[in-house]
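Quick one, T. Sequence first:
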Amino acid sequence: MNAPDLSRLRPRLPSPLEPVADERFARHGLTLLLKRDDLIHPDLPGNKWRKLALNLREAAGRPVLTFGGAYSNHLRAAAAAGRLLGFPTVGVVRGDELAGRPLNPSLARCAADGMRLVFVDRATYRTKHEPDTLARILTLAEAPEGTYVVPEGGSNALAVHGCVELGRELAGRADVAVVACGTGGTLAGLAAGFGGRTLGVPVLKGGFLGAEVRALQETAFGGPRGDWSLDERFHGGGYARVPPALAAFAQDFEARHRARHGLAIERLYVAKMLYGLVTLAAEGAFAPGTRIAAVITGSPDGTA
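Structure tokens:
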């Protein structure tokens, strides 16, 4: 089969880099820049486009099976790509207790875009990368021979290479790049392409992400790339947890910057990254004169 023509989707690349007037940074002599990856494409915004594009070329129109939780932006983006480019998609969803229940808005959107949803128990989901488990999942999903498998969050070597361009777009225009992290693929590629200091803000607790990023860079490049680090303090209690203080912060940030930048803050990733960045600025983590690029990887409903 032929690779799909991704130019048909007309992505906005490079994504805009917008300076933001915010006294919480200015008072420390810092410049805040928003890297608006949320504006790349209305259905595949942010790191979802960058992580999926090379995988979709590799899939070459074959059915795509991938993984995610009940509110996965990655599943939504994969489903939208299938609709727009005309290939079948299967989403393997964590949590068999969700089967038979009304679909939440995120999964309903996947289904509306033609994605077939398969629910698996959490123990199976945890071992989905093991060959025997993956074979059982493919059988359960009735996936046809030749189905192309994309890992959770889209994070594999191709996704990492796709995110290298994000770093290149920021090189020379910022001194520090900051991004929220789920599976680590965006950080792994961003750090490799950027060349400057790169900070990842994990949105899950557990302290496992550093090993994941190192493994992704080993697979993609044969070894470590870039000056990157993680700050594990800003997960807000774990994935999909949005404590009241974080929600209030996001509302305030929107109020400060929506009129000029049209910015709506996605709560599970972007809000945690920005909250961490404001905290770090107050702590004196950046020298005066530093230009900080905050990567806006998505918008609240997964569309730009």
